[in-house]
Design a protein that fits this description.
Helices cover 32% and strands 28% of the residues. By secondary structure, it is an alpha+beta fold. It folds into two domains: 70 residues, no CATH class; 137 residues, Mog1/PsbP, alpha/beta/alpha sandwich (Protein Transport Mog1p, Chain A), CATH 3.40.1000.10. The protein starts with 18 loop residues before the first helix and ends with a helix. This is DUF1795 domain-containing protein.
Length: 216
């Protein structure tokens, strides 16, 4: 009997097989872990993948919310295209969201103590000094409501006129307030600027007046 029998059925003989097959037998597919173990590992891998995807999704949602809530960095100014002015933003000042007075299209704030608003006005026919005085008187009645309101400044400025009031109150809750109203004329356009500081200490009053004076 041959030591190495030949295969039949038209297949290659034993001698024709490569040495690895003759010495170690035909290659076989490596056996994996038992079927139950494979299913358990696959299930665990699926759970881990789902947790990872959920974590990544949560991080993405938080990042998106942060982008929506956090204002975009500004370059130190606010451009109000409707009013046609640019308002500087010195250190400590920031752009507000909604002006507290109807009709104004932009507002910048310095904490809770000072603000400056801008709007475009139409139908102005009076001279700048008279128009500024009428607007200042109107907003002093709307915003100050003081027990004593005194006119502290009334003068022409480049391209317009400005008028300022100081309001004082008898009660201990309301501290003195400073209001400045400036009307600018540019070609056929008129821009109204209103600045308010309360309490009207030297720092807040000076800050409001400086921002108003630097509007372009």
């Amino acid at each position: 009997m041959d030591e190495h029998p030949r295969r039949t059925g038209g297949q290659d003989t034993w001698e024709s097989l490569p040495p690895s097959a003759r010495f170690y037998g035909a290659p076989t597919v490596p056996k994996g872990p038992p079927r139950g173990v494979s299913r358990s590992l696959a299930k665990r891998a699926g759970v881990l993948l789902a947790l990872l995807l959920a974590a990544l999704l949560a991080v993405g949602v938080v990042a998106l919310a942060a982008d929506l809530v956090t204002p975009e960095p500004r370059d130190g100014r606010l451009v109000d295209g409707l009013a046609g002015v640019t308002i500087p933003l010195p250190v400590g000042w920031s752009e507000g969201t909604v002006p507290p007075v109807t009709g104004f299209t932009s507002v910048v704030r310095r904490g809770e103590s000072a603000l400056v608003m801008a709007r475009r006005v139409t139908g102005v026919t009076a001279p700048p000094k008279k128009a500024a005085a009428d607007a200042a008187d109107l907003y002093s009645r709307l915003l100050l409501k003081g027990d004593r309101v005194a006119l502290v400044d009334d003068r022409a400025v480049p391209g317009g006129h400005t008028r300022a009031f100081r309001a004082e109150y008898r009660d201990v809750v309301n501290r003195p307030a400073h209001l400045r109203v400036t009307l600018l004329t540019r070609s056929e356009r008129h821009i109204l600027l209103v600045g308010l500081a309360q309490p009207a200490d030297n720092a807040s009053t000076s800050a409001v007046d400086a921002v108003l004076a630097s509007v372009r």
